[in-house]
Amino acid sequence: MRKSIFDIASASINISNEVDRIVSMSIKEKCTYSSPYNRTLFEFVDERCFRDWRYRGHFVNVDDFLEAVNYKEIIIAAQNGDTEAFMTLIELTYNLWNLAYHDIIDEKSASGWNNNFFHLRDVMLDNIEKYNHKAYVDDERILIIEDKPEVTAVAEIIEHDLAIDIIRYNHRSMQGEIELKKKILIALGLELEPKRKELQVLNKQLSDDIFFMLNNMNLRHNNRSKKDMTKYKEYVAKMSKARLEKWYDELYQMLLLAFLLLDNVGRTETVKDLKGKIVGGKI
Questions:
Q1: How many Å apart are CA 159 and CA 180, to the nearest integer?
Q2: Above 60 in pLDDT, residue 255?
Q3: In angstroms, rounded to a whole number, what is the distance separating the alpha carbons of residues 97 and 25?
């Protein structure tokens, strides 16, 4: 039976110990030398920067935020070996760590932290890497996503807002969020549309399949409603949401491939020139 990356990582990591270490350095051990003195990470964030965080939503303070996300339950689940909960714990902690770090940068006073502060970051990054995940920084927010080379490659060559959407699509919180996935796929389709003829030359089948799915899988058009029979597709209308989501995930992979193919055109020309020089013996 094939083992998942979580199974492999769990065999070499004592998750309970790692959870205890991260929690201790976040809410128990003091980490500030300067004002406000002798504060834990979470205390510092609560006093100095949580209220200015653009992603805090309607939460009034750190305690309110932690209670809303079921922080204690996340810790218990992670200690019991739930690897998804473990990644969630790290993501939550890393976001608050990042807030504090930027507060330091703004104050130009990195000496205000003891070594424990930076050790916490190292512990989190080490665990993220062992579970084949990566921390993506989006402005004031950090997302912990499975490290997929194709996702990173496309995110590096596409417009910033879309790049973030490409990364978010893989986030565990997106599982089952079919409407959010639809928005991302539609946006990627719009980005690809002007390059459709170029993609046709590179891979006609891929191009045809992508735009067929965009137009017939309840994305660009409502293919599940009989109110417009010109767009209605009975097979799609009867498809379960779970099945539809699986097809959306397939389309997402196809779109990534399309953008990588288009990006490779310039590289192909460069290699062609290199081959000519090697074969022709020219420098």
A1: 19
A2: yes
A3: 11
CA-to-CA distance for 21 and 12, rounded, in angstroms?
A: 16
- Integer CA distances (angstroms), 142 to 32, 41, 136, 138, in order: 23, 17, 6, 6
- 108-112 average pLDDT score: 56
CA distance 135 to 144: 5
Measure the CA–CA gap between 151 and 224, rounded to whole angstroms.
Answer: 30
Q: What is the CA radius of gyration of the chain?
A: 23
For the chain, how many residues are written? Answer: 283
**What pLDDT score does 123 carry?**
95
Q: How confident is the model at residue 98, as a pLDDT?
A: 93
Q: Among residues 157, 155, 204, 206, which one has the least CA distance to residue 184?
A: 155
173 alpha-carbon distance from chain centroid: 10
Question: What pLDDT, on the 0 to 100 scale, is given for residue 107?
Answer: 47
pLDDT score recorded for residue 105: 58
- Residue 157 has a CB neighbour count (10 Å cut-off) of 11
User: Does residue 137 sit in helix, strand or coil?
Assistant: strand
